[in-house]
Amino acid sequence: MTNLPDLLLEPVVRAALTEDLTPWGDVTGRAVIRPGTRGTVEMRARHAGRVSGMQVAAMAFRLVDPGLSITTHLPDGSACGAGSVLMTVSGDMAAILAAERVALNFAGRMCGIATLTAAFVAETHGTATRITCTRKTTPGLRIVEKAAVVHGGGSNHRYGLGDAILIKDNHIAAAGGVRAVLKAVKAARSHMMRVEIEVDRLDQLEEVLSEGGADCVLLDNMDTLTLHQAVAMVHGRMVTEASGNMSLPRIAEVSATGVDFISVGALTHSAPVLDLGLDYRD
After folding, report:
1. What is the pLDDT of residues 135-156, one digit of tens each?
2. Could you tell me if 277 and 43 are in contact, meaning their C-beta atoms sit under 8 angstroms apart?
């Protein structure tokens, strides 16, 4: 897996460290650990899952003490078993413990997202359908949460409002209907900007296909039979994305309809944290 630029990650990690160390630093470590005490700790997974957040955790340790020695044993995107050692950190113990919680918070959250994503991806086996995330992310943490989706084998939807034009039901209502909103987009869009439009009925889809101007169609809250019909209507002319109440037990039957993407908000808004620990090594 390709790492994200440190330039983009550092402000996120630095903000978390600042929150944890304000106002007086690690008063416990300062009180009980003699200056110069050195040691080694291991970050272990307490349950099986998919690894994510190692780049971010390492950055947390290095921001507190650039002199720490950090070895990543299982890189982002790899599978781990219960008890697997993900990372070893050696050096000044006071610095290691000052960064511990922030490193584990990021890694546990990101491993949880990657693990849930991998479970959804597994349900698409044998099809060309891809699992993608949404913008339902924790404020301030979108960059790391979307990276975790990729580590789990999923793909990213747009990062923010400026990436692409995504016409939702409220845009359609405010603009005066499907045809009106597509006419407006065709007049305003850049030739470099892709357009996706949401529909929840087949008659709306027929309007989209007739009017043109969109590259992708988001098939929202359709039952499986209707999704089959929608994919047949599109017949490869647009990218198709199924969305709305996409729970894990439903993914196999939805991917069998032939949709190109299934977007799942739960990947980032409801993923359980993967339990990780940082254990002192004698």
Report:
1. 999 999 999 999 999 999 999 9
2. yes
Range of the domain at 46: 6-117+271-281
Tokens of 190: 């850049």
Catalytic one of 196, 220, 241, 260: 220
Q: Catalytic: which of 196, 198, 241, 260? A: 198
Backbone angles phi, psi at 12, to 5 degrees: -70, -45
Q: Specify whether 250 is catalytic.
A: no
Residue 103 is part of a domain; what is its CATH number? 3.90.1170.20
**101 is annotated as an active-site residue:** yes
Q: Active site residue: 136, 179, 189, 201, which one?
A: 136
| Distance (Å, whole) CA 253 – CA 249 | 9
The burial class, CB within 10 Å (0-12 / 13-18 / 19+), for 209 is middle
| Alpha carbon distance 63, 79 (integer Å) | 27
Active-site residue, 183 included: no
Q: Catalytic site residue 168?
A: yes
- pLDDT digits over 155-207, tens only? 999 999 999 999 999 999 999 999 999 999 999 999 999 999 999 999 999 99
User: Looking at the structure, do residues 89 and 139 belong to the same domain, yes or no?
Assistant: no
Report how far residue 124's alpha carbon sits from residue 255's, in angstroms, rounded to the nearest whole number: 6
